[in-house]
# Entry
Amino acid sequence: MSPLSAARAALRVYAAGAAVVLAQLLRRCRGGFAEPVLAPQPDRVAIVTGGTDGIGYSTAKHLARLGMHVIIVEFLYCDLASLQSIRQFVQKFKKKKIPLHVLVNNAGVMMVPQRKTRDGFEEHFGLNYLGHFLLTNLLLDTMKESGSPGCSARVLAVSSATHYIGELNMDDLQGSRCYSPHGAYAQSKLALVLFMYHLQRLLAAQGSPVTANVVDPGVVNTDLYKHVFWGTRLIKKLFGWWFFKTPDEGAWTSVYAAVTPDLEGIGGRYLYNEKETKSLTITYDLDLQRELWARSCQMTGIIDMTQDTFSG
Ligand SMILES: NC(=O)c1ccc[n+]([C@@H]2O[C@H](COP(=O)([O-])OP(=O)(O)OC[C@H]3O[C@@H](n4cnc5c(N)ncnc54)[C@H](OP(=O)(O)O)[C@@H]3O)[C@@H](O)[C@H]2O)c1
# Structure
């Protein structure tokens, strides 16, 4: 990415954020956000990554209130910036011999300075996207056993409006030529959307009782903004309570997507404010979904089942 496109990425991220904040303000003036009413979920198990803070903590809290057994990643230790740690986490989880009905791929970092995960991936790409790619793939067998027709297990990925301005740089996924924290964050959120859509197609082709959807929480008042420009942090500090959603409000789309009967058996959707909406046009590009999936399998050491599934 050239310095000019890095500056363009920053402007576009701020413009995307400002548009969401404006829409949220309008909605607040018209009555605000209502907590979805959902039925109790006893005997169901969920994993929420990034469940120690912000939106993930609120998601875990709401799912637990509905009666779910919720495993918070970090409580059962998992560093999503390490492929080895993810594999160890899955081993520990599987030793418990419990089912898994909901996986919320929520953890994330935003606009961090250029740095690498333990495996040498750019941090946004490695943690926000690849870490969840590996985690999901390793847990899929348990989820397939845990779901049943009429009561599917559900995988969710928490993306963001920044995916709309994201560009998937297939020649330089690690942003090594010219790093833009804004571009890297947006790319990781775009990759998550492509990932969920391809996963949903695979699951549907296999007839698996598991669905995959994307959720977009809006702009939410959390610590995610600790690496942004100081002026933005100041605005957040002064007006965040009014402009931004609270972590609970930000969690409602995740909680809704995790349990609502409206989405039983339905996957491949992008959900915002508990409603389906369109994601960026290129996210529906099947070749791009397939290409990213294949590259991600190589990077994480997963066997790519795409060919087998779609040919037989
Ligand atoms: N806030 C927003 O406006 C907004 C908007 C759109 C999308 N999102 C998305 O929502 C998700 C949650 O963000 P948030 O706003 O709730 O941010 P947050 O308050 O900063 O929470 C992020 C969570 O991710 C965890 N995490 C970070 N690095 C990790 C690692 N290496 N391994 C495991 N967990 C790790 C954090 O744990 P530690 O604190 O222990 O590091 C924390 O629990 C993110 O994917 C974000 O991109 C947020």
Notes: Residues 3-302 form a domain with the Rossmann fold fold (CATH 3.40.50.720).
